[in-house]
Amino acid sequence: MASFNVINHFFKGLQVNSALTDPYSTLSAGLIASSGMLHGMAIHNSMNFNKAMMVVLGPNPTDIDIENYALKCVVSGQILPGYGHAVLHIVDSHLKWICRFVTDHPTPLPESTVHPVSLEVIQCANTIIPDLLRVHLPKIKNPAQNIDALSRSTMHTYGLDVDFILPFMACGHAMGFLVQSIWDKALSLPIE
């Protein structure tokens, strides 16, 4: 059931659309499914984890500092949001594109403390934490970072207000649902 919930928002729009419904119904179903606790909160929790890490470690932590912080969280039983995935057993392919963007476009210097997250530190954590989880929590099938580890922090760092990140992502999902709607109707695909 958990794996269904993780991918629910992608397929809910597809299911409703496959019945040849109007675009409003397709968008409503997909966006309602993606706004639930599992997907929406995962992104929110990852952002909070990244902010908390930056507050504790400061702007220039060493690899050892990051490893000690993550280990302290693991030992205390805390979940490290943004790591592991119920369905994927490899690094999330979406994350590779965000990492490339962050590498190609250096983080803007904050004018104040509005952007307290350093994407470079998060990327460093993304290389350290999966190995740490493999050693200390071997029952996790895929401890690799996922899209949640960096997506919201990236948008916030580049100036998007935290309250607008999920609606911004919903617009991206909406474009995907509508493109799929056109293909479903053009190819007369059967009901899912």
Automatic annotation (TrEMBL):
Pfam families: Citrate_synt
A GO term for molecular function: acyltransferase activity, acyl groups converted into alkyl on transfer
PANTHER family: CITRATE SYNTHASE, CITRATE SYNTHASE, MITOCHONDRIAL
Top-rank taxon, per record: Eukaryota
A cellular-component GO term for this protein: mitochondrial matrix
Keywords assigned: Transferase
SUPFAM superfamilies in the cross-refs: Citrate synthase
Name used for this protein in its record: Citrate synthase
GO biological process: carbohydrate metabolic process; tricarboxylic acid cycle
Family to which the UniProt record says this protein belongs: Belongs to the citrate synthase family.
UniProt keyword Transferase present: yes
